[in-house]
Design a protein that fits this description.
The complex is a heterodimer.
Chain A lengths: L20 H13 L2 H28 L5 H9 L1 H31 L1 H8 L4 H33 L11 H28 L2 H19 L4 H9 L21 H25 L3
Helix pairs in contact in A: 1-6, 2-4, 2-6, 4-5, 4-6, 4-7, 4-8, 6-7, 7-8, 7-10, 8-9
Chain B lengths: L12 E10 L2 E11 L4 E5 L6 H8 L7 E6 L10 H4 E4 L11 H11 L5 H10 L14 H13 L5 E5 L7 H16 L3 E5 L3 H7 L2 E6 L2 E7 H8 L2 H6 L9 H9 L9
Helix pairs in contact in B: 3-4, 4-5, 8-10
Classes of the chains: A mainly alpha, B alpha/beta.
Chain lengths: 277, 264
């Protein structure tokens, strides 16, 4: 019989337990919170989101008497969408940039090698990064959505009533956080696939701001449906669901957004596992 | 029966037929070798010989086209707390320039379930305490190398892989790292170190692995290597104490045909 032996080394430091996913999450949280870009981006998101909410609500309320009947009806039936969607459309920009940077900057700086030496199975490391990032974005987004709701509701009160006791509004406020988190994850997936900060940010911004516009050029209802099925079109998930101009229902919008995440996320997980670094 | 003999030892690091090519160019060509614990193994070869690629293959950062790389008998990717098995300093910087040394090391320690106090210990070992709160992007090359070493030592690993560790270090730093490698080997750890500096290797490495154009050219003790590959007359005329200085000549003679990038 032969027993393999490994030279005995007195190791003064040992892991306190077998490291697992929670340890990777703790590590990713430290990485996330110790970069300035995290707080810059999220600060920008708060600022832009509240700013656009106030601006959009103020303009609509002020112009209300001059609006046509159909728009006035929309205003009344989907006040929550009016309050939350404009802020979300622009605030997602900051979240998307951060999502791309979070992983692409690891590639551009060389940090990715340290990450992968520490977590050589790779997939858990990316999932831990995704989970901590999505969690942080959700919390910050809700900290924006709740005051946005109350401020927007106060501004629009002359022509519409919105109440926090209305479950539709509560659902929309939660949808704001989910939308931001999933958008961040989509950006993270794109950053993982492209590995390059500038390329990743360009692609994500094109997907958010250019593609929907281009798709509406397709004639007929096809263009309208395709345009609404882009990730940014899914901001409809924070509407009341009673807006005649929306192509998809809030639930359908959520499913569309999750479908995007599923496809890009699967590609990112495959890519990070397979490719050399 | 409990016979444990040296022959049956699992090598600390083992490469079996490792092969890797990029775009049709074979960078690592059927490399087979093992690295034993308790000694410093020098990993030598001209620029482009495949040293760094080999190290990345051993660490699972790259996937071989064929062959396998084993750490204490297992692929790197199967280690559950890898930094306690292997500490690696790679030639390229492996940290985010916007993060401080302390936070970089803390994140790595957390991923391995290592106590946070270990961060201060390694900062102390590499002498970076005073700069630990600074953003690592502002570090000099020497300080960057020290941060890379701190990360390599974090898990108190049984195996240490160092790719050009003395790059950018001042004479004091070079002496320090030489003594550190010897100390790690004396503690029973396996140390694999690549370098271009022959005189440095001559005084540090007990054993040599020499590669050229991705192939293994020599795998023997440093003394044997010098004896085999130096001009016999020169070797005989050189006093024993001065023979380490012949490593450079021996290396040049062996790799003369394997040099890929040379000034003409």
């Amino acid at each position: 019989m032969t027993t393999a032996t490994i030279a005995r080394v007195e190791q003064s430091v040992r892991p306190t337990h077998r490291p697992g996913f929670t340890d990777l999450m703790r590590s990713e949280w430290t990485k996330l919170k110790t970069l300035r870009s995290t707080w810059w981006s999220l600060g920008m998101m708060i600022f832009v989101s509240l700013g656009f909410t106030i601006a959009a609500c103020a303009v609509y309320t002020h112009e209300f008497p001059t609006l046509d009947a159909a728009t006035q009806t929309q205003f009344r039936q989907d006040t929550i969408g009016l309050i939350l969607q404009p802020g979300a459309q622009f605030a997602q920009l900051a979240v998307c940039v951060l999502g791309v940077l979070l992983i692409a900057s690891e590639y551009s700086t060389g940090m990715i090698r340290a990450t992968m030496l520490a977590a050589p199975r790779r997939t858990p490391a990316l999932l831990a990064k995704a989970a901590t990032f999505a969690g942080l974005v959700f919390v910050v987004a809700e900290l924006v959505a709740i005051p946005s709701f109350f401020i927007g509701s106060a501004i629009t009160s002359a022509h519409a009533t919105t109440s926090i006791t209305d479950l539709t509004n509560v659902r929309a406020i939660l949808a704001f956080g989910v939308y931001m988190s999933v958008m961040g994850l989509i950006a993270l997936a794109i950053g993982t696939l492209l590995r390059h900060p500038a390329a990743g940010i360009s692609l994500v911004l094109a997907l958010q701001f250019v593609v929907p516009g281009v798709l509406t050029l397709i004639p007929g209802s096809i263009g309208k449906h395709l345009s609404a099925a882009t990730p940014s079109g899914a901001s409809v998930m924070m509407s009341s669901g009673h807006n005649a101009s929306n192509v998809y229902s809030p639930a359908m919008a959520l499913l569309i957004l999750l479908a995007w995440l599923a496809v890009l996320g699967a590609a990112a997980l495959t890519s990070i596992k397979k490719r050399d670094v | 029966m409990t016979t444990t003999v040296a022959n049956h030892r699992v090598p600390a690091v083992e490469a079996r037929g490792l092969t890797k090519s990029y775009g049709g160019k074979t960078v690592v060509n059927d490399l087979t070798f093992s690295v034993q614990a308790g000694r410093v193994t020098g990993f030598l070869g001209p620029n482009g010989a495949g040293k760094s690629t080999t190290m990345r293959l051993l660490l699972g950062l790259e996937r071989p086209d064929s062959g396998e790389a084993l750490i204490e008998g297992r692929p790197y990717a199967e280690l559950s707390a890898p930094l306690s098995h292997v500490g690696a300093l790679l030639e390229a910087k492996a940290f985010h320039q916007g993060r401080s040394a302390r936070n970089h090391l803390l994140a790595l320690a957390q991923s391995q379930a290592l106590p946070a106090r270990r961060v201060d210990e390694v900062l102390d070992i590499v002498g970076l305490n005073d700069a630990a709160e600074q953003r690592a992007g502002g570090y000099s090359l020497g300080m960057s190398q020290r941060l890379g070493l701190a990360a390599a030592l974090l898990g108190d690993p049984r195996i240490v892989l160092l790719d050009e560790p003395v790059n950018g270090l001042d004479p004091e730093g070079i002496l320090w790292i030489r003594n550190l490698m010897k100390k790690l080997a004396a503690q029973g750890r396996a140390v694999l170190v690549s370098s271009h500096l022959m005189n440095e290797m001559a005084v540090t490495a007990d054993h040599l692995l020499v590669i050229g154009q991705g192939r293994l050219l020599a795998d023997c003790t440093t003394a044997e290597f010098i004896e085999r590959h130096t001009d016999p007359e020169v070797y005989a005329a050189t006093p024993a104490v001065a023979r380490p200085a012949l490593l450079e000549e021996a290396f040049m003679r062996l790799t003369a045909n394997a040099v890929q990038y040379a000034a003409r």
